Amino acid sequence: MQTGFVWHERYMWHNTGRASGPFLSDASGWLEPDWRHTENSDTKRRFRNLLDVSGLLDQLVRIDPRPATVEEVCRFHTPAYVDQVRELSAGAGGEGVDGTTVIGKGTYEVALLSAGGVIEAVDAVLDGKVDNVYALVRPCGHHALADAAMGFCVFGNAAIAAHHARVVRGLERVAIVDWDVHHGNGTQAAFYDDPLVLTISLHQDNCFPPGSGSVEETGEGAGEGFNLNVPLPPGSGDGAYEAAFERIVVPALERFQPQLIVVASGLDASAMDPLGRMMLSPKGYGRLTEIMLDAAARLCDGRLVVEHEGGYSAELVPFCGLAIVERLAGVETEVKGTILQEFPEHMGQQELQPHELALIERVAEAAGLAEPAVG
Ligand code: ZN
């Protein structure tokens, strides 16, 4: 198995400055600025560092990103928004619409490189250069709207790459599976009326954006039935996620028959994330990766692109990321048995709980994925 890896040092140079956790502070208000924003380069850099010291990085195929073109970005975003980001970035910087998102000086160029990194990942898989890819890009993308930055996201990397796969590479059906702890609202919006891109988001119920990501948001017009939300209860762990993948994600993919699967890989559903209240362990992320690998092998010649979204535990993100990349590459490193890897596995209620199963059954039935009655 050949696994590609997208990375660029400049991804780490997108500067989100100081904030009060994830919230931008105002010196005349009540939020005292901490020494850095929750979304900073640490988690991603440490993820890459662990790949490096484990020896796994040497076994991956390096894929260099390129800047996405304005034409590529505008397959999702409005030209006016792209202009706005460019102008803010060239000047003193600015903010998104939600009080959390920073457009720093030079962010425009880095955001283009982030979107272009996921496009290159898609091309590498479609060209058969690699079997699958992990694109460790920054800034993240799944909250970005056509005309606004949101939730630390500037350009919708997964949406832009899916458009590329369809428009330029001629694929008919692309599926995007989002396991970030937050709702993939931007990706949902990008394809809400489109039956050719299936969007599935598993997230903590009503976490971010507020009021977004309910079971009832199923698409509109021709896209009705091609958007699935799985708003899992806070506290969901490895068992709940695995059940949701087996009961909802895999059957939905089988019904849709994608030619490419893109995973929007937020590592903020981990048990130690400051912005999420879920309990995934590194082993759990590894298991979800195995399920996606298996689905891709059966449905689309193994074409799988995993592109990075959120994840804010500087300690646990690297181990979750390593578990994912180990599965993608089919390589087991010597990194085993550390307290950080094993501690989350043994937390209470990691196994599927009745109220989690009830939500999963409700989503499966609403989506017409109900299991046939036994007997
Ligand atoms: Zn997130």
Strand order of the largest sheet: 2-1-5-10-9-6-7-8
Structurally, how many domains make up the residues?
Answer: 1
The percentage helix is 25-40%
Q: Could you give me the name of the CATH homologous superfamily?
A: Histone deacetylase domain
Per DSSP, what share of the residues sits in E-state strands of 2 or more residues? 5-15%
The topology string of helices and strands comes to: EHEHHEEHEHEHEEHEHEHHH
* SS summary, helix count: 11
Strand tally, please?
A: 10
Bound small-molecule species: zinc ion
What does this structure look like?
By secondary structure, the protein is an alpha/beta fold. The protein has a single domain, classed as Arginase, Chain A. Helices cover 35% and strands 12% of the residues. The chain contains 11 helices and 10 strands. The protein has an 8-stranded parallel beta sheet, with helices on both faces. 55% of the residues are buried. Bound molecules: zinc ion.
Record keyword descriptors for this entry.
375 residues, alpha/beta, 8-stranded parallel β-sheet, 10 strands, 35% helix, binds zinc ion
